[in-house]
Design brief:
By secondary structure, the protein is an all-alpha fold. The protein contains 10 helices and no strands. It folds into 2 domains: about 50 residues, Homeodomain-like (Arc Repressor Mutant, subunit A); about 150 residues, Tetracycline Repressor, domain 2 (Orthogonal Bundle). Helix 1 crosses helix 3 and helix 5 runs parallel beside helix 8. The mean pLDDT is about 85.
C-alpha cells in the first residue's frame, strides 16, 4: 500500500471509531469519510464494505467493554448481584455507546470478527444466567434468548430517549429485574423463542430485515 493510502486508511479508522461510538454501526459512511477528510470513493477503495470497516475498528472497543462487563459479573461472589451488574452495565453501555448494542444484535453478518465477538458474548451471558439460576435467585425459565431480547428492546429505548430522557432505560430495567427474581416467577403463557425465531424477531426489531 502506498504511503498516502496508508495515511488515508489510518484517518478513516480513527474517524470510523469516533462516528460509530457516537451513532452506532449503521452510521452514514459519508460522515466517516467527511471527518477523515477523504472522498466517499476512497473509503470504498480502501475497505470495500461497511462490514470490513466495522471489523477494523469496532471489535476492539466494543468487544473489550462487553468482555470486561462479563468478567466482573462472574467475579461477583453473589450470583444475583453479578447478574444485575451485568444487565445494568450492558444496558448503560447501550445508552452511552450505541455501537455496543449493535455488536450484540448480530445485524452485520458480513463482519466475521464482529460476529465472533457476538457469539462469544452470548455464550458468556449464558454462563451468567446459569450461575444465577443455580443459586436459586433467577427464575429458572429465563433463557439466553430472553436476555438478548431484553437487550434489543433496551437498545431501542436508549436510542429513542437519548438527549430527551437519557436515563429512561433504567426504569424499564428495574421493573424487568423485579420480575426476574425467582420468588416473583409465575408460569409463562408461551415458551421461549428458539434460536432461529430469536434471530428473525430481533432482526426485525432493529430493522435488519
Amino acid at each position: 500500500m502506498r504511503a498516502d493510502a496508508r495515511r488515508n486508511a489510518e484517518k478513516l479508522r480513527a474517524a470510523a471509531a469516533e462516528v460509530f461510538r457516537e451513532q452506532g454501526l449503521d452510521a452514514p459512511l459519508k460522515e466517516i469519510a467527511r471527518r477523515a477528510g477523504v472522498s466517499h470513493g476512497t473509503l470504498y477503495n480502501l475497505f470495500g464494505t461497511r462490514e470490513a470497516l466495522i471489523d477494523e475498528v469496532a471489535v476492539g472497543f466494543a468487544g473489550g467493554r462487553l468482555e470486561e462487563a462479563a468478567e466482573q459479573a462472574l467475579a461477583h461472589e453473589d450470583a444475583w448481584a453479578g447478574f444485575v451488574f451485568y444487565l445494568e452495565t450492558v444496558c448503560e453501555l447501550q445508552a452511552t455507546e450505541p455501537a455496543v448494542g449493535d455488536v450484540m444484535s448480530g445485524r452485520f453478518p458480513g463482519a466475521a470478527r464482529l460476529m465472533a465477538v457476538c457469539a462469544h458474548t452470548q455464550d458468556t451471558a449464558a454462563r451468567i444466567i446459569a450461575r444465577a439460576q443455580e443459586a436459586g435467585s433467577l427464575r429458572s425459565d429465563f433463557t439466553r434468548e430472553d436476555l438478548l431480547f431484553l437487550f434489543g428492546s433496551n437498545a431501542l429505548v436508549a436510542r429513542a430517549s437519548r438527549g430527551t430522557a437519557p436515563d429512561a432505560w433504567r426504569r424499564g430495567l428495574a421493573l424487568s429485574l423485579d420480575g426476574l427474581r425467582a420468588e416473583a416467577a409465575h408460569p409463562l403463557p408461551v415458551s421461549a423463542l428458539s434460536e432461529e425465531q430469536h434471530r428473525v424477531v430481533l432482526g426485525r426489531l432493529v430493522g435488519a430485515v
